[in-house]
Amino acid sequence: MRRAELLMALVLGAFSAYLMVKSAELPIGWIPDEGPGGGAFPFWLAFGMLLCCVWIVARWVRRKSPPSRSTEPYLAVTTRSTIIRVIVALTLMIGAIHFIGIYLSIPLFLLYYVRVMGGHRWPLSVAVSVITPVVSFFFFEIALRITLPKGYTEPLFYPLYDIFM
Amino acid sequence: METFDLLMQGFGIALEPLNLALVIFGCALGLFIGAMPGLGSVNGVAILLPMTFLVPPTGAIIFLAAIYYGAMYGGAISSIMLGIPGASTAVATTFDGRPLALAGKADQALITAAGASFIGGTISVVLFTLFAPPLAEVALAFGAAEEFSLMMLAFATFIGLGGDDIPKTLFSIFIGLVLSAVGLDIISGEPRLIFGGLPGFFHGINFLVLAIGIYGIGEMLWTIESSHDGVKVSQASFSIGRIATHLKGLKHSLKASFMGSFLGYFVGILPAAGATPGSIMAYGMAKTMSKDPDSFGKGNIEGVAAPESANNAASTGSMLPMLTLGIPGSPTTAILLGGMVIWGLEPGPMLFVEHQSFVWGLIASLYVANLFAMLINLAFIPAFIGVLRMPFTILAPIIFVLCLVGGYAPTQNMHDVWLILIFGIVGYLMRKLDYPLAPAVLAIVLGPLAETSMRQALLMSDGNLMIFIERPISGPIMGGAVVLFLLPLLKLLRKPRVPVSD
Amino acid sequence: MIKRSVFLPLIALFSALAVLAAGPAQAWEPKKPVDFVIMAGKGGGADKMARLMQSVIEKHGFSSKPFVPINKPGGSGAEALIHMKGKQGDNHTVMVTLNSFYTTPLRQPKLDVDISTFTPVGRMAEDTFLLWVNVDSGITNVDEFVAAARAAGSDWLMAGTGKGQEDQLLTTFLNKAYDLKIKYVPFKGGGRVAKELAGNHCNSTVNNPSEQLGFYQAGKTRAIASFTPTRLPLFPDAPTFKELGKDYVYFMQRSVVGAPGMSDEAAAYYRDVFARVYATDEWQAYMTKKSLMGGFLTGPKLKAYWAREKAVHEVILKDIGEI
Hints:
The complex is a heterotrimer. Chain B is an all-alpha fold. Chain B is 72% helix and 1% strand. Chain B has one domain. Chain B has a two-stranded antiparallel sheet. In chain B, helix 1 crosses helix 17, helix 4 packs across helix 6 (106-141) and helix 6 packs parallel to helix 11. By secondary structure, chain C is an alpha/beta fold. Helix content of chain C is 44%, strand content 16%. Chain C has helices at 2-22, 45-60, 78-86, 100-107, 142-152, 166-178, 190-198, 209-217, 264-279, 281-289, 299-319, and strands at 34-38, 67-71, 93-97, 119-127, 130-134, 157-160, 183-186, 204-205, 221-226, 252-258. In chain C, strands 2-1-3-10-4 form a five-stranded mixed β-sheet. Chain C has a five-stranded mixed β-sheet with strand order 7-6-8-5-9, sandwiched between helices. Residues 1-13 and 15-25 of chain C have low confidence and may be disordered. At the A-B interface, helix 1, strand 1, strand 2, helix 2 and helix 3 of A face helix 3, helix 8, helix 9, helix 18 and helix 19 of B.
C-alpha cells in the first residue's frame, strides 16, 4: 500500500505535467482586453494537479495519510486474480465488439462470467447470455432506434430489420 | 383568477382520454429510459420526437413532457440501486442513495426519491403557473457574468463533499475540471487537449463517460474485491408494511425537499444552467443546513430528498425559458424546442398569448404527469428490489454490460466505451488509495459552464474582473459564493492539529 | 454442448431469413437504419432541421428503414467530417451540413478532409442572415447603427456562435465595410445568442430569422438590414446591404451529403428521398415561416455550388487571418 501510494502520486504527477504541456499548445497567458487564453484554464488547473501530487508525496514522506502507513498489500492476494480476470474479460469483450459486434461478444462475456466465474449451472448461464442481448436488441434498436455496433455480423441483422421496422 | 380559469381549461385538455393515455404511457416509458445507466430524458425525448407526428401537437408535447418527467423519476432508480447516475441530474442522488441501498434500505431511498420528486414537481408547477412571465424577465437578465457567479456558488456548496485528505480532494476537483476542457475551446474556436489526435476527443469527455466509468465499472470492481464473490449487492427486502412506514417517514425529509424544490426551480429557470447544478446545490445546501452534516454521504435520507426534489423542480423550471424565451435550459428542452418548431409553434413571449390552449394544456399535463410518474414509480419498486436480490455473480456481469451499452448509446462511438473502461480501472485504483472521486464527476459537469461564462464575461468587460462584482445580480451571488468558500476554511484553521490515528 | 444446440438453430434461422430477404433484384433500398449524422449539437438550427427532415421522412414513409439522427458536434464539425471520411463506400450514412462543412476543413488542414469527395445528395435550403439590435437601443437603420457602433469603439459587442464561423465572418465584414471596431463574443448556439441580445447583454447580433423570430414578434428586437440579394418577405422594412451600397450577400447552406464513394444506386435513392422531402408541404411551410431561401440542388450542380462556396470562404477566412 505504501509503495502504491507513492507510485500513484508519481504517475499522476507525470500525467499532470503532460497535461500542462498539452494545454500550452494554445495561449496560456492573459490576453489584453480579452481575458485568459484558450489554454490557460486547463494549464493552470493541471499545474494545480501537479502541486497536489507534490503535496501528496510530502505527506507520504511524513507518513500522514492512512495508505502511506498501511502495511497491507495494495491488491489482496485473495482477490487479485478475480479482479484481473474481470478486467481482462471486459477488455476482451470491448475489443471483440469491433469485430464480432455487440450481439456475439456480450453473450460470450456473460457466459464466461456467469458459468466460469460465477459457477452457476449451464441452463441459467445460457438463459442469461441469450436473454440480455435479445432484450437489448428490442429495447435499443427497435424501441429507441439506437443502432449498436455489429462488426462483421451486420448482414445477419438485415432480415430482423425487415421484420421489425 | 384568470390564471385559474386558464389552468382549468388546461386540465380539460390534459384529461382528454387520448392525452391522459399519452401521459401514462409516456411516464412508464420514461421511467425505464431514465433507469438505464447512460440513457436519460434527452435520449428518450429525442428518439421519440418523430413518433409524435401521429398525434396533434398538444398531445405530442404532453407525451414528451411525460417522458421527461418519467425519466427524471427513473434517474434516481439507477443512482440508488446500482450507484450509477443515469444522467448528470442524478449524480447527487448517488451520494446518499447508494449507501442507503448498501445498508439494505433501498426501498426507503426509492420511496423518498419518489416522494421528494413529487414535491419538487408539484411546487415547481405551482410556481410556474403563478409566476411564469415575470420569471422570464429574470432569466433574460441573467448574462455570462451572473452565470459564472452562479457556478462559483455551486462549487462553493460542494467544497465540503470531499474526503479528509485535502490534497487528494483538490486533485480530484482539478482533474475533473481539466478533463472538462477537452474538446473545442468555443471562445478561440480551436481544438484543445486532443490526446493522440484521436477524433473521439473532439466532442470532449462527456460527463456520462466519467460517471459510468467511475461509478459503474470502478464501483463494481470495488464491490467484487470487498465481497469475495457470492455476496449480494445489498440485502434488499420489501413488504407493504415497510412501504407504509417509509411513506410516513417522508415527513423527516420534508424540509430538505421543500428547500430543494425552490432552489431547483430557480436554478432551473436560468438559461444554460439546467437541472444538474440545481440538484448539486440542493445537496450542498441540505448538508450545510443539516444538524448532522457528517452523516451525509453515509446514507442520510435528506441527501436523497434534496437533490431529487431539486432536479424535478428544475426540469419544470427549465421549461420556462424554453416556452417564454425560446432558450432551452437543458439539452432535453432543446429537443422539445425542436419539436415545437416542427409543429409550427413559435416559442417566445408571444406563445402565451397566441397559443393559450397549448401552453396551459402543457402546464396542466405537468401536474398530471407528475402524479402518474410517482404512482407508476411506486408500483415498480417491488420489481426493482427483486432485481437487487439476484445473485451478485449474475447481477455484476449484467451491470457491466449495461454500463458499456449505455455508455455507447448517447454518442454511438466506441471511443467512449474504451474511455469508460480506462476511467473505471484508474478510478478503482485511485479509490483504493483514498482519492475521493465524486468531486471530479461534479467538476466535469460544471467546468465547461464556469470556464465559458467567465471568459465571455471578461471579453465583454475588456478583461476587467470587476464585472463579476459590480453587476446587480452577479455581485450578491458572488458574495454568497465567497462566504461559502471561506466557511470550511475557517473551520479548518480553527481545528487543532492532531495527528490522525487510524 | 448446450451452447451449440442453442446456436445452431439460431444460425439456421438467420440464414433462412437472409435468403428470403435477398429476394428478386429491385431498385436499391437501405438494408438497415440509415445513420443521419448532424454536424452540430442537439437543439441547434441544423439539429432542428435534421429532426424535421427525419420526421417528414417517417410521416410520409419515404424510406423503408428509419433515419436515425446522431449528433457529432465535436470540433466545429471536425468529428463528423472525420467520421464521414472513415465511412468510405458506406451506403447507409448521410450527413446534414452547414457552413462549417467548408470552414472547418479550411481552418484545420490537419484533418485532411476533401469535401469534393463526398457524395452530393441535396441542398435543402439556404438560411438567411439579418443584422439585429435590441429595440431599447432606439436604432432603426444602419446609419444609426454605424454611428452608435463607431462611437462605442471596441465596447460595441456582437454576440455570435463559435469563433471563425458564420457570425464572425459577418462581423468582420461589418467592421471592414463601415470601419468599425466591433468586438465579437462567441456563445454556444444561435438561440443563446438571440437571448443575449434580448437581455441587452450585447449590442447587436447577426442571427438567422429562425433564432430571433420569438423576440422579434414580441417586439424586443429589430432587424435593421439583411445579408440577402433581395428583401425578405417577413422583414420588409430591413433593406439589403446591396441597397445600402455594400455588395455583400451571405447564406448558410443546409445540405445533405452522403459518405464518399457511396454507390450510385444508393446515392440515387437518397436524392429521391430528399427531393421528396423538399417538395412536401411541411418543408415548404417551414421554409416560408423561417425565411429560408434556395431551391433544391443535387448532383453535379450541388458539387459545383460547394466548390464555389468553398472558394468564397477561403477568401474570407484568409481576409480575417483565420487561415
